[in-house]
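Example for tutorial group B:
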C-alpha cells in the first residue's frame, strides 16, 4: 500500500495543501506601522548653535517665541501643519522637549517669572493654546551643564558634566519648578547631548516611563574644554524598536521598567534610513521613530517638510506600510497596544499636626512611578522634592518638611503604567500676579503715551515724551485675592534722557499706603522693589506713576510691568550661612545685607522648640552658638533677622560632629571681632606680638568656656585656644 499511486497522490496532495497553508500563513503576516514622532529640543539660544558656554551669566532674548512672524508662530500655524499628513490623513503633531535648568537659572533675565524655566514659560505663555489645539505634546529636556574647571587651568566653562550626579540637585530643582510653576511634568524625555549614565537612567525610571535619547551607534569623548557632546551609545540597538534598558547598563536591554527609543537628528536622516525603517515594518514589526531638530535653527521648518517627504517616499516604496504622526506619548501607547488614555484619578487629603502638613494620596490604579512625585515651594521661593511613604495599595503619605505657615504651593504628579499623567497643584498663598502695559489693569491718566518695542517685560512698553516742565501719569490696578502683606515691584526698559523725577504711589481704597520718589535714573530690566504693604481685596488697590519732566530738556518716561507678590522675596538678605559643628555644640555664621537683630530657633524637627538664641544688637556679621547637642543627630534650625521692621528668614540643618580643622575662626563687624570655636573647656589666649613665642601669650581677662567671644579695640593681636 505504501507505494500505491492513490496513497502517493494523497501524500502529494497533503504536501501541496500543507505548503499552501504555510505559504498563506507567511503571506498573512500583517505589516507593521511606523509611529513617527517629530519634535524639537527647544531652548532659547544666545550664541551660534546654542548657549554661550564661555560666560557664567548669560542673557537670553525670547523673540523666538514672542515674534508674531518668528519660527515658533510659523510652526504653530494650522496651515503649515495641514501641508503634512500621514497615511491616515491626519495632520502633523509635534513634540516639544523644553530645556529647563542650569544656565537659565544663572542668567540675568528678569523678563520671565522664573528664569530657570525660561523656554518652557515662553512656550506656554505665547503658544500654549496652539499646542492644545494642535494636539502637540509639551514636555521636558535637560542638559547637564555644569560651570566647572575640570582641567584645573583656572578657566571655567559651562561644561557638560562628567556625571549626572554632579547636576542632580539642579535637575531636581528644574523638574520640581516645572511642575509647581508651569504645571508641566514629563512623561517622555530627551537628555541634552544624548548624555546618559546608569545613575540618571535609573533615577529617571522612577519618574517617567519613556526616554527618546538613544543615539546609537554614536560615541564621543571630548577632552578639551569646553566639554560637550560626550556620549556613548555604541552598544545600544540600531533598530527603532523600544527597549527596556538594563539597570546596570543603560545601553542594552534589561530589567528597567522604563523604555528607551532610538532617535536621529533630522539633518542626519536620509532616505535610506527611512526606507530601512519602513522595510522593517513591512516584515511585521511596528516601529517607533524619534526625529528631532532645534526650533532656533533657521532651517527647522524646512527639516520638518523634508521629514514628511522622506516618509511619503518610503511609504510609496512599501505600499502596505502605513505611518502615523504621533506625539511621543501617543506613539509609545500605540506601539504597546494600549487603548487606555484615561489619566489616573488622584485623591488628596490633608492632615495638620501642630502646623506640620501630611498629604494622604490615593489613586484608582497602579502607577508607573514607585510613588507619586511631590514637590513643595515655600514662601521664600525655595523648591524641594518630598518623599512619599506607602500606606497601602495605591496609597501613600507625604509629610512636608515645612511648617504650614511657610508653604506657598505643593505640586503632585502621578503617571500610570500606560503613561497617562495627572497633576495637582495645592496653593497656600496666591501666585505672583503681573500687570503689563497690555493688560486690562493698566491705564494712562495724563500725557501722550505711545507704544515702544523697547521692553523690560513682554513684547512692548509705553513711552511718553515730556516737554520741559510737563508731567505724565499712568496707573496699574493691583490684583489681590487675599488680604495681607504684598510686595510691589516694577521693571522699566532702558531709556535715553529719562525723566528726572518719578513718583510711585500705592493706595488701597482711599488710603495712601506708600509713596516712593526717585530722583535719579532707575536701574533697567531688573525688579525694583517699591514697598511691602497691606492690601485688601475688598477695595481697589492702585499703583500710580507720576513722571515729572526736566525744567529745560525734553525727557522720556516708561511704563511697563508691575509685580504683586505675597511671597517674601528677601532670600538674599541672609547670606553665606556656614555651620561649624562640634561634638555637642555648633556655631552658625552668616552675614546680612544690612544691620539686623537675630533670633535662632532649633530642635529635632521643623517645629524647632528645643531652644532659642537671641541677639538684639544690630549687626551685619553674625555668629550664634547652639549647645547641648547630641553627636550624629540632625537638627533643623531657623534664622530670623529683623531689620527695618521686617523679618527675614532662612532655614537649614546641622549634624554635630567634631571638626578640629575649624577650631578657631572670626568674623569682623566694625571695630568688633567675634571669635568662635568648636567644643568646650578652652581658654582663649591673646598675644600682642604678631610672631609670638610661648611666653608672649596671656589669658584673656575672663576665660570663656564656649564661643563666641567678642573683642573690641583697634590694636592688632593674635589669638589661640588652650585646653
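The residue assignment follows.
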Amino acid at each position: 500500500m505504501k507505494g500505491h499511486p492513490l496513497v502517493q497522490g494523497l501524500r502529494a496532495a497533503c504536501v501541496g495543501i500543507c505548503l499552501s497553508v504555510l505559504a498563506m500563513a507567511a503571506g498573512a503576516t500583517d505589516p507593521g506601522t511606523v509611529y513617527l514622532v517629530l519634535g524639537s529640543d527647544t531652548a532659547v539660544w544666545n550664541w551660534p548653535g546654542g548657549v554661550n558656554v564661555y560666560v557664567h551669566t548669560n542673557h537670553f532674548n525670547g523673540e523666538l517665541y514672542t515674534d508674531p512672524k518668528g519660527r515658533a508662530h510659523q510652526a504653530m500655524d494650522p496651515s503649515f501643519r495641514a501641508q503634512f499628513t500621514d497615511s491616515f490623513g491626519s495632520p502633523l503633531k509635534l513634540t516639544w522637549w523644553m530645556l529647563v535648568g542650569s544656565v537659565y537659572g544663572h542668567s540675568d533675565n528678569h523678563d520671565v517669572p522664573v528664569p530657570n524655566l525660561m523656554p518652557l514659560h515662553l512656550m506656554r505663555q505665547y503658544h500654549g493654546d496652539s499646542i492644545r489645539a494642535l494636539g502637540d505634546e509639551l514636555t521636558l529636556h535637560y542638559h547637564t551643564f555644569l560651570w566647572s574647571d575640570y582641567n584645573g587651568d583656572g578657566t571655567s566653562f559651562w561644561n557638560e558634566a562628567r556625571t549626572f550626579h554632579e547636576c542632580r540637585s539642579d535637575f531636581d530643582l528644574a523638574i520640581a519648578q516645572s511642575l509647581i510653576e508651569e504645571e508641566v511634568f514629563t512623561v517622555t524625555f530627551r537628555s541634552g547631548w544624548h548624555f546618559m549614565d546608569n545613575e540618571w537612567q535609573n533615577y529617571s525610571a522612577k519618574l517617567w516611563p519613556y526616554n527618546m535619547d538613544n543615539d546609537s551607534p554614536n560615541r564621543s569623548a571630548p577632552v578639551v574644554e569646553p566639554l560637550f557632546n560626550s556620549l556613548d551609545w555604541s552598544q545600544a540597538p540600531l533598530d527603532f524598536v523600544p527597549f527596556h534598558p538594563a539597570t546596570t547598563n543603560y545601553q542594552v536591554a534589561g530589567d528597567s521598567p522604563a523604555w528607551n527609543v532610538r532617535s536621529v537628528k533630522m539633518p542626519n536622516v536620509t532616505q535610506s534610513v527611512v526606507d530601512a525603517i519602513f522595510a522593517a515594518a513591512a516584515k511585521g514589526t511596528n516601529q517607533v521613530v524619534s526625529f528631532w531638530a532645534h526650533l532656533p535653527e533657521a532651517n527647522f521648518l524646512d527639516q520638518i517638510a523634508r521629514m514628511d517627504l522622506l516618509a511619503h517616499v518610503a511609504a510609496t516604496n512599501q505600499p502596505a506600510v502605513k505611518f502615523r504622526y504621533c506625539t511621543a506619548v501617543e506613539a509609545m501607547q500605540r506601539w504597546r497596544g494600549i487603548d487606555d488614555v484615561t489619566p489616573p484619578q488622584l485623591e488628596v487629603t490633608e492632615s495638620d499636626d501642630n502646623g506640620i502638613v501630611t498629604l494622604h494620596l490615593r489613586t484608582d490604579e497602579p502607577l508607573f512611578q514607585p510613588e507619586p512625585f511631590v514637590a513643595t515651594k515655600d514662601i521664600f521661593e525655595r523648591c524641594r522634592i518630598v518623599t512619599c511613604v506607602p500606606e497601602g495599595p495605591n496609597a501613600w503619605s507625604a509629610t512636608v518638611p515645612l511648617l504650614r505657615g511657610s508653604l506657598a504651593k505643593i505640586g503632585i504628579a502621578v503617571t500610570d503604567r500606560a503613561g497617562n499623567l495627572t497633576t495637582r497643584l495645592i496653593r497656600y498663598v496666591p501666585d505672583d500676579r503681573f500687570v503689563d502695559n497690555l493688560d486690562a489693569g493698566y491705564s494712562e491718566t495724563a500725557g501722550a503715551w505711545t507704544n515702544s518695542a523697547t521692553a523690560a517685560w513682554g513684547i512692548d512698553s509705553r513711552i511718553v515724551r515730556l516737554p520741559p516742565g510737563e508731567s505724565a501719569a499712568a496707573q496699574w490696578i493691583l490684583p489681590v485675592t487675599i488680604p495681607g502683606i504684598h510686595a510691589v515691584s516694577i521693571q522699566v526698559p532702558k531709556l535715553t534722557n529719562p525723566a528726572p523725577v518719578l513718583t510711585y504711589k500705592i493706595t488701597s481704597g482711599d488710603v495712601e499706603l506708600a509713596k516712593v520718589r526717585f530722583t535719579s535714573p532707575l536701574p533697567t530690566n531688573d525688579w525694583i522693589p517699591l514697598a511691602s504693604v497691606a492690601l485688601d481685596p475688598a477695595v481697589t488697590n492702585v499703583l500710580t506713576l507720576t513722571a515729572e519732566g526736566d525744567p529745560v530738556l525734553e525727557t522720556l518716561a516708561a511704563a511697563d510691568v508691575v509685580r504683586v507678590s505675597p511671597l517674601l522675596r528677601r532670600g538674599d538678605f541672609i547670606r553665606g550661612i556656614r555651620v561649624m559643628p562640634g561634638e555637642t555644640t555648633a556655631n552658625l555664621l552668616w552675614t546680612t545685607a544690612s544691620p539686623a537683630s537675630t533670633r535662632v530657633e532649633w530642635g529635632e524637627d521643623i517645629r524647632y522648640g528645643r531652644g532659642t538664641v537671641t541677639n538684639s544688637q544690630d549687626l551685619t556679621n553674625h555668629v550664634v552658638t547652639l549647645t547641648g547637642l547630641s553627636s550624629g543627630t540632625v537638627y533643623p534650625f531657623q534664622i530670623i533677622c529683623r531689620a527695618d521692621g521686617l523679618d527675614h528668614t532662612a532655614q537649614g540643618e546641622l549634624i554635630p560632629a567634631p571638626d578640629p580643622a575649624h577650631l578657631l575662626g572670626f568674623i569682623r563687624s566694625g571695630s568688633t571681632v567675634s571669635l568662635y570655636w568648636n567644643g568646650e573647656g578652652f581658654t582663649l589666649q591673646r598675644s600682642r606680638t604678631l610672631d609670638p613665642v610661648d611666653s608672649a601669650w596671656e589669658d584673656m581677662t575672663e576665660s570663656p568656656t564656649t564661643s563666641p567671644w567678642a573683642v573690641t579695640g583697634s590694636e592688632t593681636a593674635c589669638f589661640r585656644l588652650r585646653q
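The first helix runs from residue 5 to 27. Compare this with the pattern of hydrophobic and polar residues in the output above.
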